[in-house]
């Protein structure tokens, strides 16, 4: 298996097409974390990102004989994850729309101004998070949306624990400042 590690991705994929499970395992190991981060950045839910990447690899193995690479394996697998992630986002939006429709009936029992305040708060948080630098945003989402500890984030992103703490401090400081401005506006 160690000799396979020197093979390029396209060579490994050709071996996969010939039912070589070891070559498949090498590609899986090379791309799992990268594809997981790619899916997570769009989905913001760790479990769903893992489902997307797992499904992509399962389909890759199932359909290996019929797949023709037009460019590199990297381009192919990244595109497949991108489209699967977009499909998952579409399903999420449909689900949220249904939930929002059912919540509207509950919200009518509460004051409209409370609902508007809640929506403003939620939008402000999302806007602030989107404005964070990419790495800082990723660390914040892995922590708050993915439920990972600082140690787990440091390990998965291959960065130090101190760097994770610094990113979290920066994100939380930005959120505090942003939300303080919103509260002043609301008052």
Tell me about this structure.
The protein has 187 residues and is mainly alpha-helical. The chain has 2 domains: 1-109, RNA polymerase sigma factor, region 2, helix turn helix motif (Rna Polymerase Sigma Factor, Chain: A, Orthogonal Bundle), CATH 1.10.1740.10; 111-187, Arc Repressor Mutant, subunit A, CATH 1.10.10. It is built from 8 helices and no strands. It has helices at residues 9-17, 21-43, 46-62, 73-107, 112-131, 134-144, 150-157, 161-186. α1 (9-17) packs across α2, α2 runs antiparallel to α3 (46-62) and α2 (21-43) runs parallel beside α4. The longest helix has 35 residues, at 73-107. The chain is globular and about 65 Å long. The mean pLDDT is 82.
Instruction: For the record, give the distance between the C-alpha atoms at the N and C termini, rounded to a whole number.
Output: 64 Å
Question: What structural class results from the helix and strand content?
Answer: mainly alpha
Q: How many separate structural domains? A: 2
* Net shape: globular
State the fourth-level CATH superfamily of the largest domain.
Answer: RNA polymerase sigma factor, region 2, helix turn helix motif
Helix percentage range? over 70%
Rg, alpha carbons: 21 Å
Stretches where pLDDT is under 50 for at least 5 consecutive residues are none
The largest sheet, given as strand count, sense and whether it forms a barrel, is: none
Total count of helical runs of at least 4 residues? 8
Top CATH class of the largest domain: Mainly Alpha
Order of helices and strands: HHHHHHHH
Report the CATH architecture of the largest domain: Orthogonal Bundle
Mean pLDDT: 82
CATH T-level fold name of the largest domain: Rna Polymerase Sigma Factor, Chain: A
Q: How much of the sequence is in beta strands?
A: under 5%
Total number of beta strands:
0
